[in-house]
Amino acid sequence: DEVKRITELMQEKGYYSFNRDGGEIYFTADTLQSRKQVPLTMDILKDTLKTPYKQYTIGNVEIQYLEKLTDTANVDVKEYENAIIKRIDDQYKVKALWRPITLKKGEIYNQKNLDLTKRNIIATNNFSIADYREVVNPNDTVINVKYRLIPLPTYNFKTALDLHYSQILNFGFSPSAELTARNIFRGAENLTASVTGSIVTGN
After folding, report:
1. Which residues are paired to 148 by β-bridges?
2. Angstrom distance (rounded) from CA 54 to CA 60
3. Could you give the CA distance from residue 57 to residue 194 in angstroms, rounded to a whole number?
4. Contact, 23 vs 7, CB < 8 A?
5. β-strand 40-44 against 57-65: which pairing, if any?
């Protein structure tokens, strides 16, 4: 709807706090003038003269690689491409942990970049995001972002069975199996092997 569109547009321009509670924008329809063409007035409840909206910037971007959520990733700490990488061990290369990140320190806040980073992490098929935080000082306009990542199992084995029927073949089924090996070279690479077969019966 229009409220969502305006909110997303403002957040793309760096206005992090704009309509955060969802109640700052509302529309008023004047039905006294006409029932066919009704004028709409958009109002913003926030008193922008006394407390104007401010553009926020990205501060520290921290990625923590853990084995479990209770771990403390201070074994290895490096700064790479303006991001802080903390690892519990060296199973994943620093660059592999940094690669999904689209945020840059000092850039204007854009909610789409934060959402894209989350999607990139999930798309590696190597991690789950165990914890995510946006830390904002009430007296500041800098957003510090922290991701805590837990690795998925090194090996993942899946099986499937498809059944099919037709008047020509009568009945058949297709078993399949897929094995995925994760992080084979410590760079979040995946190797997938699959086999599929078909067994059919006929008259």
Report:
1. 64, 131
2. 19
3. 45
4. no
5. unpaired
User: Does the model's pTM come out above 0.90?
Assistant: no
Residue 200 CA neighbour count, 13 Å, CB half? 10
d(CA 186, CA 188): 6
pLDDT tens string, the chain, 203 residues long: the values are 788 888 889 888 999 888 887 778 877 877 776 667 777 787 777 655 567 788 999 999 999 999 888 887 676 788 898 899 999 888 999 999 999 999 999 999 999 999 999 999 999 999 999 999 999 988 889 999 999 999 999 999 999 888 877 766 577 878 899 999 999 999 999 999 999 887 777 65
Query: What's the 3-state SS for the chain?
Result: CHHHHHHHHHHHCCCCCCCCCCCCEEEEECCCCCCCCCCEEEEECCCCCCCCCCCCEEEEEEEEECCCCCCCCCCEEEEECCEEEEECCCCCCHHHHHCCCCCCCCCECCHHHHHHHHHHHHHCCCEEEEEEEEEECCCCCEEEEEEEEEECCCEEEEEEEEEECCCCCEEEEEEEEEEEEECCCCCCCEEEEEEECCEEECC
